[in-house]
Design goal:
Strand order of the largest sheet: 1-8-2-3-7-4-6-5-9-10-11
Shape: globular
Distance between the termini: 56 Å
Number of helices: 12
Bound molecules: threonylcarbamoyladenylate, magnesium ion
Order of helices and strands: EHEEHEHHEHEHEHEEEHEHEHEEHEHE
CATH superfamily of the largest domain: DHBP synthase
Strand content: 15-25%
CATH topology of the largest domain: DHBP synthase
Radius of gyration: 20 Å
Structural class: alpha/beta
Helix content: 25-40%
CATH class of the largest domain: Alpha Beta
């Protein structure tokens, strides 16, 4: 399949009438899949009402079909069309954070969306992305758009059009290049169907931000250890993984350097994931600065690109520093733990 590419400047005002967006929207109406930028990561979109269209997402990504998709909308009217009811806490969170990197789980209305979107569940995940290209595309198509991250299943999510191209060229009908995404990690997924809001996947909106709006918020306890069955089906899969095995090292820099030294003595090519503050401190085969530790949002923004850069560098193993789990650090550590298959080593006191 030939993959069409459209380049769009997200800064222009009349996006809704630009030919690139109209063509891409037409592809969606024809039940083809199109990758597009959001404020978190690139998404792989298809008509959420069509089995045929949604099936193409699973095929292009190589995604297990028991892992449901997020439905992207551009207006509150579209929400009423697909959900059975809107709980009070969900309404408060929507008012505070939509459009934005927050996905909310609702009971679904029957018979509206393809069953393949929800993978047989009676709930549906919905979000309104805060990105002019995504919003214009959804409005122009006039459809709810099912969209997972636009990577091959298991790979780090794409934060540039080039990442999408590398993974999916020839497997999808089109790709809108709207530049780099902003947040860099996926949306926070929350379940508002119970009495206490629960985070099923940490992401761009932090636990602290949610608590300011709805009070107490819980985090799905299985996320910390990788053990047990997470409530969000996708969280059980190995994910975000670079090609080389990744180890998270929780200790001081001297201890980490000694560890690297020992591995290099065994003849291994070692990569190090650190931040701008410490990049000069390590001696290894490849040392990459992933944002600034002082500002965790910059670490989130660079994380997936850094993991993909290690793939291109041909290292045999990667060691990464760990990050505090406050704010967006919770999402960063969740993704790093999954990318590392929970290989976490702590320095002895
Ligand atoms: O930022 C994002 O959320 C990106 C952009 C493209 O919007 N999308 C994204 O989609 O990350 P995906 O498919 O990679 O992740 C969706 C997550 C999965 O962990 C899935 O299991 C969960 O949401 N999910 C979807 N529907 C659900 C439901 N009804 N109940 C619980 N979890 C659900
Ligand atoms: Mg994903």
């Amino acid at each position: 399949m030939k993959t069409f590419q459209w380049i769009v400047d997200k800064g222009v005002d009349n996006l809704g009438t630009c030919p690139q967006i109209s063509q891409a929207a037409h592809f969606l109406q024809q039940n083809e899949v199109v990758a597009f930028p959001t404020e978190t990561v690139y998404g792989l979109g298809a008509n959420a009402k069509s089995d045929e269209a949604v099936q193409k997402i699973y095929e292009a990504k190589g995604r297990p079909s028991d892992n449901p998709l997020i439905v992207h909308i551009a207006s509150k009217d579209q929400l009423e069309e697909i959900v059975a009811d809107i709980p009070k806490q969900a309404q408060q969170l929507m008012d505070a954070f939509w459009p934005g990197p927050l996905t909310i789980i609702f009971y679904k209305k029957d018979g509206v969306l393809s069953e393949k979107v929800t993978a047989g569940l009676n709930t549906v995940a919905v979000r309104m992305p805060d990105h002019p290209v995504a919003l214009s595309l959804i409005r122009c198509a006039g459809l709810p758009i099912a969209a997972p991250s636009a990577n091959r299943s298991g790979k780090p999510s794409p934060t540039t059009a080039k990442h999408v191209w590398n993974d999916l060229n020839g497997r999808i009908a089109g790709l809108i290049d709207g530049g780099e995404t902003g947040v860099g990690v996926e949306s926070t997924v929350v379940d508002c169907t119970g009495s206490v809001v629960q985070i099923l996947r940490p992401g761009g909106i932090t636990k602290e931000q949610l608590e300011e709006v709805v009070g107490k918020v819980e985090v799905d306890p299985t996320l910390k250890t990788g053990m047990g069955t997470p409530k969000s089906p996708g969280m059980k899969y190995a994910h975000y993984a670079p090609d080389a095995p990744l180890f998270l090292l929780d200790g001081d820099r001297e201890w980490i350097q000694q560890w690297i030294h020992d591995k290099r003595n065994e003849g291994l090519k070692v990569g190090v994931l650190t931040t701008e503050e410490h990049v000069a401190d390590y001696k290894a085969d490849v040392v990459l600065a992933c944002g600034q530790r002082e500002d965790l949002a910059t670490v989130a923004a660079s994380l997936y690109d850094t993991l993909r850069t290690f793939d291109e560098s041909g290292v045999d193993m990667i060691v990464s520093e760990v990050f505090p789990t406050e704010g967006v650090g919770l999402a960063i550590m969740n993704r790093l733990l999954k990318a590392a298959s929970y290989q976490y080593l702590k320095q002895e006191e």
